[in-house]
């Protein structure tokens, strides 16, 4: 399996995390379980169409706007090549003229969106011979959209601010300080106004977004524990729950089961069985491509 990430054009970096290319060969029909990280993705399946969960449609491209719950990606035996675009949590709204709240939990094709430019981009990506040309097509598409679809404004700046605040609070190690009310105050909005605008830009409700932050903080701690890192090796699951802003282990277990379909103990065992990925232990929120590449594909547990 090969995974490569690419930086978008400089003007796009406030809104797009990265482009990525995943190349693999599936030895059998498979199911990969992917957990949301609060960011939408645009994806192209260049060697074989794939399915999502109970959706009978075959996808060659789609805009994925994840809900709180995991997504099951179903692929057939054979070569599997995926080109991905990972947006900042608030960034997708800059390029698609729709509230993200309307697409939560959906996998939207160019036809679903009635988007001829998206359809043309799919043809360009499918016809490209190398990553350099793919990245150029993606840059051209998004730079055009940046000027055309949405101009941003005060609400965009507010959403940037609160997302960065949440990330910095997570890095400082105390997610218990975060709440929808605290984020609304940081955005200088009433809780009702903030919830509406956050939902429009991010897709998730603020409370669900904070649950994802806690979940990924806990998975990161489990990764570090599995690697035997000095500060984490002796931590119990209850210790990790408290450190990540949960009331107790039971609270963390409920969240884990809803977000990933598995308990913390099951995920820890899976990390240990697969081997902890150093790249993920260094990530605040793993990108979708990283999760698809390694570990949080807990297909053995499905």
Describe this structure in words.
By secondary structure, the protein is an alpha+beta fold. The protein has a domain at 2-148: Jelly Rolls (Sandwich), CATH 2.60.120. The protein has helices at 110-113, 116-127, 131-148, 154-172, 180-186, 191-202, 206-226, 237-243, 249-260, 264-274, 278-281, 288-293, and strands at residues 2-6, 16-26, 30-34, 41-45, 51-52, 61-65, 71-75, 78-87, 106-108. The strands form 2 sheets. Strands 1-2-8-4-6-9 form a 6-stranded antiparallel β-sheet. It has a 3-stranded antiparallel β-sheet with strand order 3-7-5. Helix 7 packs across helix 10 (264-274). The longest helix has 21 residues, at 206-226.
